[in-house]
Amino acid sequence: MTTILDSIIERKRIEVEEMKKAGVNKLGGGLNPRSLIKTLKEANNVAIISEFKRASPSKGDINLSLDPVQQAKLYARSGASAISVLTDEKGFKGSFNDLKKVREAVDIPILCKDFIVDEIQIDMAHSAGADVILLIASALQQDKLAELYEYASQKGLECLIEIHDEMDLEKALKINASLIGINNRDLKSFEVNIENTEKLGPLVKKSGALMISESGMKTRADIERAAAAGANGVLIGETFMTSFDMMGTFADFTVPMVRDDHES
User: Fold this and answer.
1) Taking the domain 4-22+36-252, which CATH number applies?
2) What gap in Å lies between CA 82 and CA 72, rounded to an integer?
3) Domain chopping of the chain, boundaries
4) Alpha helix (H) ranges present in the chain?
5) How does 210-240 read in b/e, with b if 16+ C-beta sit within 10 Å?
6) How many Cα atoms within 13 Å fall on the side-chain side of residue 207?
7) What is the pLDDT of residues 75-103, one digit of tens each?
8) Would you name the residues annotated as active-site residues?
9) pLDDT digits (tens, 9 = 90+) for 234-246
């Protein structure tokens, strides 16, 4: 049975071939990389990674009217620790141009969020000014995950390795991932359950990696649940893209970090 993720990855492979024919400027990016890992280590509160996401396959159009520059500036003023930018066009109505505009507008770490299957997408993210890229463990074979992780690292990019279950976590640990995201959305069914962070969070923390909880964050209670499971940060898209009081939402979502006894 073909899943939603399978369909997206197949489409991405076709898009990659088109990118290769068009070529990419590899000269941009990397001039002043900003470290999400450093930001997370220094944070006293659960870091908020706010996302610029116009649409999604599960929700359809979320907010098509927002300008990436203005939204990024609003996120930064409101207290975002980093900004995630969807660069997938067909599923999320995003682009690498959105990422480039956000990079020019703010001075905090930027995550390129896409379904990366090839080095050329990493080149595109780097050229547009990303500091971090997303690699989805369930979308990649172990060897390819390691290959892309190494390629991105050589370009000075940090990698957020996204996992959905214990098998994905095993993949992430084999490449010694230092930053792991737990997606509460099952990319095969697109159902969301924050219990996924509560189940996998302690295992991630035991590994020594920093942990981000992704998807389904709609209330302060959701952030508190993620924090209790060991999250260093949360990635939030739809809630911020539809907020009419950004400062208020950020204030409500500011939750102290829950540290282990051995953490300083």
Assistant:
1) 3.20.20.70
2) 10
3) 4-22+36-252
4) 4-22, 36-42, 68-78, 89-92, 96-105, 119-128, 142-154, 166-174, 195-207, 220-228, 238-241, 246-252
5) bbbbbbbbeeeebbbbbbebbbbbbbbbbbb
6) 21
7) 999 999 999 999 999 888 999 999 999 99
8) 51, 53, 113, 162, 183, 214-215
9) 999 889 999 999 9
